[in-house]
Structures are given as C-alpha cells and as structure tokens.
C-alpha cells in the first residue's frame, strides 16, 4: 500500500533504522527492489528523478509502480520525486500520485547553479504549503552536494552543482538548518556532508576530513523532528567495479560511502539513504558478464534477468545493513 514519506520515516525514527531510497527508471529495477523488500520484510521508497521521467515517460513510470504495489499489497511503498527543480515539477508529481516530493531549492531551476538561502526558503515553503494540503510529504535540501576533496559536485550530467563550490556551501550549517525547517515546514531534510552523486565520490577510502559524518549528530540535535536524508550514498562496491573491468568496462579507481559510515549516520539521525549508482554498477556488471559468458545468446531477457538478480542482491544487503529488515 502507498504511504507518505512522513509516515514511513516516523516509524523509522521510532525504531532507529534507516530506509534506502532507490532510484527507479525501468521495470527490472522496480521488480528487483520489490523482490528484495519481500525477501527481507522491508518498507520501500521508490524514487524517480526528472531523468527517469524523461527515460520511461510519466505514465509508464506511474503504472509500473502501481503494478508493484498491486503485486506486493502488504509492502508499504513511498513514491518519491527525487530532486524536483521547481514548484511546478513538484505540483505535476503530486497530480500524478506521488506520495512525497523533493524540492531541491539548494540549486536554481537549472538544477546546476547554487541558489541563495532566501530563494531556497521561499520555493521550499511554497511546495510545503501545496503538498501538505493534500497529505504529500516534502523533502528539502540545505547545502550543496559536493566533494570536499576537489570542491566539485561530482556528476557530469544530471543533478548537481556546476563549477567550484566553497567549503561552506558543501557542508550544512546546523543552526541554519533549524531556521530553514522553522520557515519551510519540511518533513525531511537532505544535508551536505561531503558526498556527491555518481560513481566518482572519493579518490581514496573516505576519512573524517572528506566525509563529515560527525556533523549529522550536530544537525540532528537542532532539528530532532525532521528526518535527515543522505544523498550520494552509494558505496561503489569494489567487487562490481572489478567485474565491470574484467568484462571490458573502463572505470577509474574510485570509492563510495562505506556501509559502516552510513550505519553511523543512521545511529545519529539519518532516516532516508539515497542510492542509485550501486544499482547501476551491479546491473552493468551483470549484463557485461552475461554477454561475455553467453556470446551466442540473443534473448535480452537472459542478461536482464542477471541484471535484476544483481540489483536485488544490492537492495537486500542495504535493507539488512540499515536495519530495515523485518520492519515492513
Ligand atoms: O540525483 C541523481 C540520481 O542519481 C538520478 O540520476 O538524473 O541520471 O536519473 P538521473
Ligand atoms: P548515488 O549516485 O550515490 O547513488 O546517489 C543517488 C542520489 O543521491 C539520488 O538522489
Ligand atoms: Zn540526490
């Protein structure tokens, strides 16, 4: 059944666990997540970006998610819009049945240029008024995602600031977070602690100077009733990088957010953990391997089955590591 993000994360806060929010674009990803949730008895957040809507089409996405809920009637599902760039985008998603929207007012409507604090407060507040009137939850973002190593946002296309960010822009200020929540009324807040979108987050296994997990507790202390969200939380498994390389892929050395660091985040108040890249890596690795090992196969379902299984494997591991298992 569909539930709002607020409902789901209130339960997560009460029982001190975190919920992975997986990005979805197609049938196999949705099936993989639902399968893993059923196998571990976990609640589900399916999130769709603007890129996902462009890829699949709004109607396909909506009906695939409806099919998922129909197929697994006992699993609570949040349908969340990831990184809404404008109130108009959020309004469209609300109309199409999303139970939660993110208004990312940390960037201007181009989803690239860092916005002023006033702009962020104003756009996010307007979305909260609109969404809360119909029982839809809202996630805001304060601070810009970006690498403390390089000062850059990470991903080349998609959602993320362009150009160099200052150290200040890349870390959420706890006192400002309190003001932001009071002025906007968001249910959940995405915070900047040194993570970035995509596969290239860190050039080495991250330590406290480039991944500011300690800041989470300081932010949580200021806004204990607002659920904290970690974006850019793929762990970038070295095993999948190795398989991609073994079967012809060309990926540079890179590191993600270690699962143990996410667990520390959850202990300190993180309730929603955004993951897209890990599923991409697992599916790409599995498909490359399947093509290489079965060169005479021409039924795409064979490689898609391998991809779906690989994605489900990642999801199961995250549900278990974040304390979700048994909470569905
Ligand atoms: O926020 C970034 C997510 O990974 C979505 O990426 O814009 O390529 O769908 P996308
Ligand atoms: P990753 O690229 O680390 O998977 O992050 C996804 C994300 O934050 C989506 O909003
Ligand atoms: Zn994100």
From TrEMBL:
InterPro entries found in the cross-reference section: Aldolase_TIM, Class_II_FBP_aldolase, FBA_II, Fruct_bisP_Calv
Keyword Transferase applies: no
Entry keyword Lyase: yes
Pathway(s) served: Carbohydrate degradation; glycolysis; D-glyceraldehyde 3-phosphate and glycerone phosphate from D-glucose: step 4/4
Co-factor requirement: Zn(2+)
Pfam families: F_bP_aldolase
Record key words, sorted: Glycolysis, Lyase, Metal-binding, Zinc
EC number: 4.1.2.13
Gene3D superfamilies, alphabetized: Aldolase class I
UniProt similarity note: Belongs to the class II fructose-bisphosphate aldolase family.
Function statement: Catalyzes the aldol condensation of dihydroxyacetone phosphate (DHAP or glycerone-phosphate) with glyceraldehyde 3-phosphate (G3P) to form fructose 1,6-bisphosphate (FBP) in gluconeogenesis and the reverse reaction in glycolysis.
Protein name stated in the entry: Fructose-1,6-bisphosphate aldolase
